[in-house]
Amino acid sequence: MVKSNYIIELTNVSKSFGDKVVLDDVSLSVKQGEFLTILGPSGCGKTTLLRLLAGFNTASEGEIRIGGEVVTDTPPHKRPVNTVFQRYALFPNYNVFDNIAFGLKLKGVERKQIETRVKRALKMVGMTDYEHRDVDSLSGGQQQRVAIARAIVNRPQVLLLDEPLAALDLKMRKDMQMELKEMHRSLGITFVYVTHDQEEALTLSDTIVVMSEGRIQQIGTPMDIYNEPCNSFVADFIGESNILNAVMVRDRLVRFMGKEFECVDTGFGEDVPVDVVIRPEDVYIIAQRSSAMFTGTVRSCTFKGVHYEMFVDTPDGYEIMIQDYNRFEVGTEVGMIVKPSDIHVMRKERVCNTLEGVMKDATHVEMLGGVFECTPAEGVEAGEKVRVEVDFGDVELTDDSSDGTVGGTIRFILYKGDRFHLTVRTEEGINIYADTHDVWEDLDEVGIKIRPQSLRISRMQ
């Protein structure tokens, strides 16, 4: 039997709470000694995934292996893992020593060995001579170190960390990031770290797993995730980005903002709709506007400590974010260039809304939890299931959820340079996507309207 190089293996793991699917067919392998970070917004399923690894929840489907052993239904205390929680979960009536020694005492380890291992753990986290201190007298950073010492003293194969720095202030969080990285190097065990902080993930990780709505979007090194995002969600979530609608004219030539640009990407086909990502540090302002690829006017300029962040409006209605070491005053007309290697082309996840519906009669279709009027659908009978396509720009949103055929909640907002691309979750739990120039906020409740002539109806294949 060939020994696996992976300490953790998840195969087709799903988790539901009632009718709500929190994790959807997740497969993931983690190498021995790796620092892997699970990154994503609130509600994406990252903490649920960590709890499945810890054994605090049981998978609805799929298999979990740790150290080559199937642990899908194994209780937490029998798994070779320890967890550091966001709130640390220290015992307030115990001192530092007894908090760290708690797990060893439960296992019946000899007193002398407990003392040796606790002191070694305290030394690893930089808290020698703190063993008799009351945990309530410690700072947040010190309590976090105690929580890590309590976990590593049990010599787990895997250390699970659930946003352990979230309660710390910015400076302490930065300091603890460096200490965690050093601890990982010295311990040599596998760290699985959960966070919603992109910068933290880029700083700490060997590998990043980006999640959204219960699914893995991309797995890669910090450099891969930042420089080669696989879709617009990853590009928007990791760092700052200019994300624009584009058309791949042919290999190494892409059109956006009404102009054609050389790029280095191939294999997309010809005249194919795509998205392009240009990082703000990769847009260069040049003095000679006549040599520029495109021009614009500086609308805002903010000092960010290391660089200036500027928003430039182009004559044809696009907004470009630029990060530059030089300051350009508001109102200045500037020229800009982008190198071919700095234009990253991505396949579009979707080009229109594709929905399932049921014909009520010749001019009405039921979908998204409501009945929409449509133009007469030839050859389709009442009661028949149909495929309905709607362009993003044809979805109208109102600021009153009752002033629409159905209601919904805005769940994700992506700025595309000249418009906003919104993900709206209906009351039935179905996503519909809308392009708009109006400004909305995340979690705004909206009404959804679609004109009859905007619905393209066809029989289900």
Architecture overview:
With 461 residues, the chain is of the alpha+beta class. It has three domains: 6-227, 3-Layer(aba) Sandwich (Rossmann fold); 232-347, Nucleic acid-binding proteins (OB fold (Dihydrolipoamide Acetyltransferase, E2P), Beta Barrel), CATH 2.40.50; 353-459, OB fold (Dihydrolipoamide Acetyltransferase, E2P) (Beta Barrel). The protein contains eight helices and 30 strands. The strands form six sheets. Strands 6-7-8-3-9-10 form a six-stranded mixed β-sheet, sandwiched between helices. Strands 13-12-11-14-20 form a five-stranded antiparallel β-sheet. The chain has a five-stranded antiparallel β-sheet with strand order 15-19-16-17-18, with no helix packed on it. α3 packs across α4. The protein is globular and about 80 Å long.
Output the CATH class name of the largest domain.
Alpha Beta
What summary fits the major beta sheet? Answer: 6 strands, mixed
Please give the domain count. 3
Number of beta strands:
30
Q: How far from one another are the termini?
A: 45 Å
CATH architecture of the largest domain: 3-Layer(aba) Sandwich
Uncertain stretches? none
> Could you report the average pLDDT, rounded to the nearest whole number?
92
Binned strand content: 35-45%
Number of helices: 8
CATH level 4 superfamily of the largest domain: P-loop containing nucleotide triphosphate hydrolases
The shape, in one word, is: globular
Secondary structure: helix percent: 10-25%
Q: Radius of gyration in whole Å, from Cα?
A: 26 Å
Q: What structural class results from the helix and strand content?
A: alpha+beta
What's the CATH topology label of the largest domain? Rossmann fold
Q: What's the arrangement of strands in the largest beta sheet?
A: 6-7-8-3-9-10
